[in-house]
Specification:
Elements lengths: L14 H6 L4 H9 L30 E4 L12 H9 L4 E8 L5 E3 L13 H4 L8 H4 L6 H6 L16 H8 L5 E5 L8 H12 L3 H7 L2 E5 L2 H10 L5 E5 L7 H4 L5 E4 L1 H6 L3 H7 L3 E2 L7 H8 L5 E4 L2 H10 L10
Parallel strand pairs: 1-2, 1-9, 2-4, 4-5, 5-6, 6-7, 7-8
Antiparallel strand pairs: 2-3
Amino acid sequence: MSMPRSRLPLPLLLLPLALAACDGGGGRMAAALSDDAGGDPAPMPAAPVPTPDPPLPPLLTDQVIVAHRGASGHAPEHTIPAYDLAIQMGAEYIEQDVLPTADGVLVCIHDDTLDRTARGPAENCTGNVSDKTLAQLKTCDFGSWFNEANPERARPEYEGLQIPTLEEVFQRYGQSAKYYIEIKPNTSTDGSVEQTLLDLIAEYDLYEGMLAERQVLIQSFIPSSLLNVFTLEPEAPLVQLYAAGATFTAPLAASYSFGIGPNTTEVELNPLMVEEAHALGLAIHPYTINSEEDLAAMAARCVDGLFTNFPDRYRQVLVDNDFGCPAPIR
């Protein structure tokens, strides 16, 4: 099994894109949680690992269902209930955005700041994620905001949910799940986040699956982050994300990536994007689509998969419709 490698200089082929771009498990966790944050955080509650709810009918159109931040239309994003629900709904991948804490632990959260999704003591639960220790973040409530914003989907059990570390996610689902991990902007440029990520993947016996079966996909908007991973492990399956309005550089991305993740607006504006990606052997996974009508319209373009907050809706679209697409690139 190939293992993470020491960093090498960036390949010269990739430098223009990079320049243009805007210790072990239990011990590490115990050390992080030993920091003083006004009391010991409660452990994450144990629960049975979910499986898809039977029966799940077969797909008439085979595409990759990516649960964006988990089933985040139904449950608080990047929480264990959101990931559990996504798996129960038949998502192929669950997505994790990761950011490092002040003490170097990768946590699953989308925003750089805590203000939108965290509730609790201001000194622990407001401001930048990277300024807080894991112990501080574990005092915050990451579920109540969802109940406030979505009263029709509010549930009492969402109150008080803790932020999961990526390690806790791997501990919970292990090799039974597929992971789509985004290295966020504004992380360190020295490769430490990328190295930590690959180390965790190896520690939880996901490395071979990542290389052989794409059990783990690593995505980023920032080419330098993907290039850091590429130099550490050239065989890692990488996905270059593109923001709305970004220059489409698929030929260059194809030199180091498995796929691309464009904003759906760009796919709509460029009807040849899917064909161009496929001609280069790239998978294409646009983000983020939620209505049944929009999901069906994008699926009909024969993309390889989609990001959605509602994996149940996307799956139903694929169950109900044969769009005549070729098998997706996986």
